[in-house]
């Protein structure tokens, strides 16, 4: 698939965009697709035609789009700078630099002239310059050999090649006489045609593309010259179209060529429309679609990232396979070039000298001992220490690694989709409106019901400790207290004829420990004891004093050691708020929140619990579980939420 526009594509689009001269630049946007692709969009207004959007992807393409990407909520700094210098200015010219993949858009605002230079060759750039071509700001500050694209520098054009639309027979003959490579490579690189158009010239001329330029006779040179004139003459009669192979887009061209005679084609009214469909569709596929109506949950965000990763892996795998196949397709010229470079290195020539000698070499990397050449519109780094099959194998090996990652990503995305299915929120069943419960005598104290259904009450202070013993402690009940000062008196109310199980004792013990000063001190265990009511007295021995809320215990105490703290708050099926030991609350409530000693005060943790209940039952739950009502079930001191149960 074509990755970027060629010089002839640029010439055609520049010619087509001339109607934009005189239009006013309204806004400028820089949008990212969520991948490495960046896009600069100029929103234009032309009297009599209305608004239009001119977009460029640096290093790839430029065209008018009918489907611009959504504007970012926060403008990028580069876009803000472009707006500062270009907004509300008028476009005075759109020009191509000497048949290269460089476009300059000159603007005028008042009497101030500025320009925007679009570099459409890899790696690509967008450069804001003033009327003297002094760089105000580049999208990507870079330094090349002999060129510095940085603020404050004068913009310098890259080394230019010959213009095929202006070449003379004598000029063409001179180029061939200086070339030591074959015909198609010389046309592609020295005349800046690109591989596809160079092959079309050879095909129309009827001359073998692999013939050496030194072997061309004067008649053959004249035939090639006529072929160039014919191919480039078609620019005057454009037929913009996209070429397909097996329903996949492979190329976009301004006119028809013989190479794609048997391929399926889709024609467009303008070349810009064809480019928008060809390149714009790729950008849309890679764009991260954000739904403004709701925040994306973590699983959906993960799914989006995995889908983008899979698309990237598939694209990279396809590109690497195409590069490997291109190396084999051009086996002989690649093999000859690698052999020449190795020989010249052995003869002591420098990398710069080698690059200057071979026009088909675009870049050299002495550290890695590689050269970069263009084959079929793709830049291919080749290791000079390897032969052709070994270089092709490098691309195949990288493709295999990506295949392995792709398989892992596919497996991961399946797991994510399964998790999403499991976590889809079921529609909440309509619940009856909660009713405020009637006051009960024990609501003024701490209380809970055990798993066996027995009522356990506890004091909230010295006064209520005295009160529950005096008013509610009966002969069949059990009195319980912790060894730690500052604890509530706890009474297990035993129904007539009922037996007190070990579980009831354990739950009451946890209740007594949890509401004592042990929780407030941040400890997690404590000791307590239980006795029968006849062992509890307010009568001190001679010379002793019993303070308010304290009692004299006579006889044997039944100790419970290392009782762990633990409190839960829950909502029952009939919409009542309950609290107490975790095991007891879990047996009674459907929505249970377990709390432990932590870092939030009573008010804060009560509000957190209320929000959880509100999400589950709606705001009407405040009638029975307001933050104040929840706080009554919370232990003294600071707490935190440990878990949310059923």
How far apart lie the N and C ends?
A: 54 Å
Number of continuous helical runs: 17
User: Which structural category do the helix and sheet elements fall into?
Assistant: alpha+beta
Sheet with the most strands: spatial strand order:
18-19-21-20-22-25
The description of the largest β-sheet is: 6 strands, antiparallel
Radius of gyration: 41 Å
Q: What would you say this structure looks like, in words?
A:
- The chain has 646 residues and is an alpha+beta fold.
- It folds into four domains: 7-149, ibrinogen binding protein from staphylococcus aureus fold (Roll), CATH 2.30.310.10; 169-237, Helicase, Ruva Protein, domain 3; 298-398; 441-644, no CATH class.
- It has 17 helices and 29 strands.
- α5 (195-205) crosses α6 and α8 (298-329) runs antiparallel to α11 (388-422).
- The radius of gyration is 41 Å and the shape is elongated.
- The chain starts with 6 loop residues before the first helix and ends with a strand.
- Residues 288-293 have low confidence and may be disordered.
């Amino acid at each position: 698939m074509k990755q970027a526009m060629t010089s002839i594509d640029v010439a055609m689009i520049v010619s087509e965009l001339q109607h934009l001269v005189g239009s006013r630049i309204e806004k400028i946007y820089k949008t990212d697709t969520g991948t490495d692709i960046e896009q600069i969009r100029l929103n234009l207004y032309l009297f009599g035609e209305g608004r239009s959007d001119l977009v460029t992807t640096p290093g790839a393409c430029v065209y008018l789009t009918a489907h611009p990407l959504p504007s970012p909520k926060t403008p990028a700094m580069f876009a803000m700078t472009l707006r500062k210098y270009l907004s509300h200015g008028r476009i005075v010219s759109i020009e191509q630099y000497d048949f290269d993949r460089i476009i300059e858009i000159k603007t005028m605002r008042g009497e101030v002239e500025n320009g925007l230079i679009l570099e459409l060759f890899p790696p690509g750039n967008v450069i804001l310059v003033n009327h003297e071509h002094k760089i105000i700001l580049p999208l990507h500050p870079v330094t090349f050999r002999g060129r510095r694209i940085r603020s404050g520098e004068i913009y310098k054009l890259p080394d230019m090649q010959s213009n095929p639309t202006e070449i003379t027979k004598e000029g063409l003959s001179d180029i061939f006489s200086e070339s030591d490579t074959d015909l198609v490579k010389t046309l592609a690189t020295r005349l800046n045609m690109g591989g596809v158009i160079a092959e079309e010239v050879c095909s129309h001329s009827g001359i073998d593309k692999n013939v050496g330029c030194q072997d061309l006779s004067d008649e053959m040179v004249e035939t090639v010259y006529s072929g160039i004139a014919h191919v480039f003459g078609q620019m005057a009669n454009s037929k913009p179209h996209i070429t397909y192979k097996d329903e996949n887009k492979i190329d976009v061209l301004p006119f028809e060529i013989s190479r794609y005679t048997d391929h399926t084609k889709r024609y467009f009214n303008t070349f810009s429309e064809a480019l928008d469909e060809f390149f714009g569709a790729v950008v849309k596929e890679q764009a991260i679609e954000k739904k403004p109506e709701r925040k994306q949950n973590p699983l959906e965000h993960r799914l989006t990232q995995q889908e983008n990763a899979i698309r990237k892996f598939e694209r990279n795998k396809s590109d690497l396979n195409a590069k490997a196949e291109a190396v084999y397709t051009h086996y002989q010229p690649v093999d000859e070039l690698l052999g020449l470079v190795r020989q010249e290195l052995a003869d002591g020539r420098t990398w710069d000298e080698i690059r200057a000698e071979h026009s088909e070499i675009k870049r050299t990397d002495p550290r890695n001992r590689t050269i970069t050449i263009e084959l079929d519109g793709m830049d291919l780094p080749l290791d000079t220490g390897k032969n052709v099959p070994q270089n092709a194998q490098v691309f195949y090996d990288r493709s295999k690694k990506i295949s392995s990652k792709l398989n892992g990503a596919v497996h991961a995305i399946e797991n994510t989709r399964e998790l999403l299915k499991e976590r889809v929120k079921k529609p909440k069943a309509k619940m009856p409106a909660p009713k405020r419960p009637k006051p009960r005598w024990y609501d003024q104290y701490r209380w809970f019901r055990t798993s066996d259904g027995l009522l356990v009450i506890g004091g909230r202070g010295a006064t209520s400790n005295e009160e529950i013993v005096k008013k509610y402690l009966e002969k069949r009940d059990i009195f319980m207290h912790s060894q730690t000062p500052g604890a509530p008196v706890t009474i297990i109310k035993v129904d007539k004829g009922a037996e007190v199980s070990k579980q009831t004792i354990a739950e009451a013990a946890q209740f007594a420990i949890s509401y004592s000063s042990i929780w407030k001190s941040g400890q997690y265990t404590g000791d307590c004891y239980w006795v029968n009511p006849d062992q509890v007295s307010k009568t001190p021995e001679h010379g002793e004093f019993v303070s308010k809320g304290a009692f004299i215990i006579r006889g044997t105490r039944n100790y419970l050691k290392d009782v762990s703290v633990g409190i839960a708050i829950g909502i029952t099926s009939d919409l009542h708020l309950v609290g107490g030991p975790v095991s007891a609350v879990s047996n009674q409530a459907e929505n249970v929140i377990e709390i432990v000693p932590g870092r939030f005060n009573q008010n804060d943790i009560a509000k957190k619990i209320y929000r959880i209940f509100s999400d589950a039952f709606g705001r009407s739950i405040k009638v029975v579980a307001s933050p104040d009502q929840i706080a009554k079930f919370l232990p003294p001191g600071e707490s935190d939420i440990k878990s949310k149960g059923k």
